[in-house]
Amino acid sequence: MTTTAIHEESAAQRLADQLAANRHLLLTTADGTPLTDATWVVPDGAALGIWVPADGRAARQVLRRSRVFVVPCDGHGRPAGRRVPARAAVCDPDTTARYRTALINKYGFPALLRLARSRLRRGLDGTVGIRITLIDRERLLTAEAWHPSGWYSLN
Q: How confident is the prediction for the chain on average, in pLDDT?
């Protein structure tokens, strides 16, 4: 691994750590439309994890299109920083359970109450975790342009 790749990886890790240190995170589309209200965020290695309703807008959008933006925000959903491009994926039940435990560890009793209420209202399968992997902006700008292959046709 080259020193540039190590530097990029550590920069992405630092940014993920900074976002995970915030109390709330806002998930938005490319045009800035919020997919979630202010939601709690937990670290997941070099990525971030959030917990949302399985039938909610965020889960449906992530299943359709994985490109999202994350923004640190206050408890009312007002942005408190810059938008960061990311890829999101709906997690399996084991990872979702790990996120629930991480929420309790980070937020304590309020998270325990919210998780218990959610389990009573929606059941265990009523919520899912979403894993958010940050995309390095420089990598987006310097990526090789897409060129269609010889067999590609607009018709």
A: 83
Note whether residue 58 is domain-resident: yes
Q: Within a domain: residue 20?
A: yes
Domain membership of residue 144 (yes or no) is no
Q: Which helix (H) or strand (E) holds 43?
A: strand 42-44
Backbone phi, psi, residue 51, to 5°? -130, 120
155 assigned to some structural domain: no
Judged against a pLDDT cut of 80, whether residue 85 lies above it is answered with yes
40 is in which domain, residue-wise? 3-137
**Which neighbouring-strand residues pair with 90?**
130
β-partners of residue 24 are 40, 73
Task: For residues 79 and 62, give the distance between their C-alpha atoms in angstroms, rounded to a whole number.
Answer: 20
Residue 30 near residue 64 (C-beta atoms within 8 A)? no
Give the model's pLDDT for residue 2: 57
The torsion angles phi and psi of 47, rounded to 5 degrees, stand at -120, -175
The total number of structural domains that make up the chain: 1
Closest CA to 89 of 44, 39, 37, 34: 44
Comparing C-alpha atoms, which of 81, 16, 76, 10 is closest to residue 50? 16
